[in-house]
Amino acid sequence: MKVTIKDIAKHAGVSMTTVSKIINNKDQDISQATRDKVLKIMKEYNYVPNTIARSLVTKKTKTIGLVIPDIRNPFFPELARGAEDKANEEGYNIIFCNTDDDVSKEEKYISMLAEKMVDGIIFTASSKRTSGFDILSKKSIPIILVDRDIDFVGVKGKIIVDNFQGAYEGVIHLLECGYKKIAFISGPLSSNTSICRLDGYKKALKSYEIDFKEECILEGDYKSEWGYKAVNTLLSKGIEFDGIFCGNDLIAIGAIKALKENNIVVPKEVGVVGFDDIYIANLVEPQLTSVKQPNYEMGYKAVEMLIDIIDNKKDKVEDLVLSTELIKRNSTIENVNLK
């Protein structure tokens, strides 16, 4: 027979109101002894509170939505791990949604999360998204954007990295090593993330008084297949390059594969720098020099920021811009002796 809140109250010798307050963490006016007694009896009888009923009382479901664009990209599982760890610490559950970088899937998942009455959403938008969601104009669901810098209804805060500075330092490293003809294989330049990285690339070239060449910019997606294709495009068009700065590590890994197949030695003939520092960067050959994003910290702090909004009913929080770090490995070499 199912144990009810009435049964717990009876066994504990207290009112149902007292039990309800303890279950819903509204027990400031209840003694510790009574609280401990009720919790002990709940454990003895394996009583599990009805989350739907509890949400009607607290106006909270203790659930957060996490929407990411590509679970196959190793950058995002680490971000999700950080979000999950913080959510567990705070007693929240996470509904995980993978959109495959598909804007229509984002619409579907945001609607689903709204229907499930999540308390808030952590959202890494598709690189193709430029506007918000109609449903959010009718729902007061707070959203924290991660790794994306766009504005729409519901966004209460953002966690991003300094993409401009990260790209600048990555390209400067190539230049300091002695590579001078540097191509940029980018993700979609419709996203502010990619635009900032392109601006950092341009600034680094300018610092070395190297002319910017439009032909050295190749725009695609954030997948290894694009890096592979882009290198073959550079070669087929006869565009000279001795260094490649990539929009992310997956692009860089695809680029290195294409270079190898064309008998071009990395890093002696071409230096390659990625962005993200996913765990695979340390496993490929040669090991990839990369601009590290603190992806675990981004996920962790996103949930921290969201719960602060939920608990304290804040309208907005200050955006957080995290620093990147250049991790030097074997896909670049200092004092390179180029022919």
UniProtKB/TrEMBL annotation:
Transmembrane helix is among the record's keywords: no
Keywords recorded for this protein, A-Z: DNA-binding, Repressor, Transcription, Transcription regulation
Gene3D superfamilies cross-referenced by the UniProt entry: 3.40.50.2300, lambda repressor-like DNA-binding domains
Spans through the membrane: none
GO molecular function, one term: DNA-binding transcription factor activity
Family matches, as Pfam families: LacI, Peripla_BP_1
Cited CDD domains: HTH_LacI, PBP1_LacI_sugar_binding-like
Record keyword Iron-sulfur present: no
InterPro entries reported for this sequence: HTH_LacI (IPR000843), Lambda_DNA-bd_dom_sf (IPR010982), Peripla_BP/Lac1_sug-bd_dom (IPR001761), Peripla_BP_I (IPR028082)
Highest taxon listed in the record's lineage: Bacteria
Protein name, UniProt field: Ribose operon repressor
Organism: Caldisalinibacter kiritimatiensis
